[in-house]
Structure formats: C-alpha cells, structure tokens
Amino acid sequence: MLPLLFLCAPLAQQTLALPSQHKASEKPLPYLLRAGRDYRSGSYQIPSAVQNGTSKARFDIPTPETTLDIETLFRLDAPQIDSINGSVYDWWYFDAVSETNPDDSLVVTFFSSSAEAFPFLDANETSVLNVWLWASFANGTVFADSVPATVATVTGPDAAGTNSSGEWSSTGFSWAALTENLSQYEITIASEKLQVEGRLTLTSRGPYHLPCGVQVGRTILEIAPHIGWNWSDQPFIDSVQSWYWGHGRLGPYSIVWFSYLAIDDPSNATYVSSYVARDGELLISACDPSILTVRPVGSPGTTGGRYPPRMSDIPDGFRLEYDLGEANGQLKVNVSVRTLVAGNGNDYLRWTGDIVGEVIESESQRTEEAGGGGGPGRENSPLVGVAVLEQFVMVE
C-alpha cells in the first residue's frame, strides 16, 4: 500500500500517494500553425521530437486595458515558443508548501525543452516533453523523478465551457484551470511509471499579476534579455549569470521576488521583478530595480553570502527589501532555507524556507501618525510564513 501525503499549503490543498522507497499590432507564432494549432478551439500541440529550423519566442502581448480579458489570460498559458528546437525552452510550473511544516512540499513542472537548452534536464532523454515531480516530507525524505511525454496539448477556453488546460500525453500528468479567470487550477497525477497518483488544487489568494505589471496597449513579458520568466529563445547557459527567485506568504502578505544578472553583460545591470499583495490587494507589481533588493546570506567563513555569487556558493538564506511606496512603507524580509528539494549543490538549488519580516513605515506615515516625532515605525509583531525559492549560478 502506498502511503498518503496530506499537505495544507498556503496556495493549495492536495492529497497524494507516493512510493515509500523514495526518500512547478499581436505577432502570430508560426509554430502554432506547424505544431497543429486548431484556431476554433484554441488548441496547441507540441511534438516530442526536437524541431529543425529557427524558433521564435513571444515577449509581448496586446493589453488594450490595464485589466486582462479572458483571451489575453490564455495567451499567458499558451506556449510562448513557436517550435522547440535544440536551443529554446518553455515550461509550466506549479508548487505548494505546507504552512505548518515547510518540509512538506510539492512541485510539478511540465517541460518543453531539450537538455541542450535547459541543462538541468536528463541529457539521455530524447523527448523534449517531460514532467518532473519533486516532493519533500517532514521526515526529511525527498522524492524526485520524471516521465517523458509523446505529445503535449495546451487548450484554451472554448464554447463547451472548458478553460485553459494542458496534458502531457502518456505521462498521467495534466493541469486545468477550474475558473475562467484562471484563479484556480487543478493538477491531476496518475503516473504508472512513477507509481504516483493524486490531485493538487491551487486557489489564488491575491490578484493575478505580470512580472512587470500591465501597460496600456502592449505589455512586455521579457523580464531580462531573452528571458520571459519560464521561457527563452536561447540556451539557459547563454543567458544566465545568476538567478534568484521565490515566492511565499508571511502574515497577510503574498510576495514574489526575482533578481537576475545576465552573463557577459557590459552594463552589469540587475534585472528584478517584484510582487507584493496584502489581504488580496495589490501593492506592487513592477520590474524597477529600485523597488526590490535581494541578497544572499551566508555563514561566517563560507562563500554563501557572496554577491555576485559563484558556483558552489550555498547561502543560508536571503535578505529581501521591498519599497512599497510612501503610502505603504518598506517590507523587509529574511528568508531562511530549510529542505533542499532539488538541485546539484553546485549551479542549481531549490529549497523550502521560513520567512520572517517587518514593515517599516515611511516618513510620511510616521509624520501623519506621530505628528512628526519618533523613529522608524514598525508593525507591532513580526510577520512569519513559508516560501519556495531557488538559485541558479552559471559562472565559476
């Protein structure tokens, strides 16, 4: 009998069975025609073989208003690469972590990429379509495995009432939006190869967002050169010097952070994306580097806190500082890593983590509340929570 795993997660509820032996003016994309797009149903099919020729990526979408309509929302779920040759990648990512014990976590990622483009995939796998599953447990064990697909189908909303969905055929893994506005998803797992079955339901606690916000007319999705967060038109190692990403909840706040250095960048620019919502109300969604600072924290005598980082630098955590503006102050967050869920201990690491934070009132807030007196104002009690976070470092 396979053991059951029950998690109460900040953005999800899930029940899984896992094997006990194991310790996420619009330019048309040509590939959507070559890959078999059915315009009537909004269906995209991605073949499992590496495609010949040049691939193109979508890095912007039309946004006539500052809110996203159903058609625009599906563009974000649709494939962003027109064909998967050996140099490009695109993936769909889902995760959850327990609020009561962050050592319990689950990540499911649907890949369309070769190992040449994204070097953390299995170099011996011939299919560019793979689903990876990572699960960690309170007893310290970690389950990690993958299964290849024969074809992937991503479908948009249709007249029958189906919302956005994706299926990696022959894997037993699929995902579907349960609501038209994509505020709830369900990932179904029924993998004979992995001996895993279950469902993961994700329900949004905050408003949807794009990494750099929504601009009237057209919204840019490229958050760093050649990077559209989960996709790129060139190999990962040709783009990335370092990459910090994570998200979590602390108290009433939902936060996302991304801080990135491009390889061989003469400007030495830091590319960031920041998101903060409080009690479901959006406070920040922007790519302005003055809004967010992310720095590693390491133990004395180690290189874990070095910045810019190098391969094999293993931090104990990260320090985040968000500027929420005069009306909301500054959010300071310390993230401490816990379970190592994925990675090789060198150039890639993904953890679950604990979060402790505080809000520092702005000068205008302190003046308004105290008539101009007093030092920096803070919320009465520290904010605590959990996170999933990762680090890529591609330079020695």
Automatic annotation (TrEMBL):
Q: Which UniProt keywords apply?
A: Signal
- The name under which this protein is listed is Pc22g24550 protein
Segment Disordered: which positions?
A: 363-382
What InterPro entries would the database entry show? AsqO/PenF-like_C, DA_N
The yes or no answer to whether the keyword Signal is present is yes
| Residues of the AsqO/PenF-like C-terminal domain | 238-363
UniProt organism field: Penicillium rubens (strain ATCC 28089 / DSM 1075 / NRRL 1951 / Wisconsin 54-1255)
As given in the record, the signal peptide range reads: 1-17
Give start and end of each Diels-Alderase N-terminal domain.
81-229
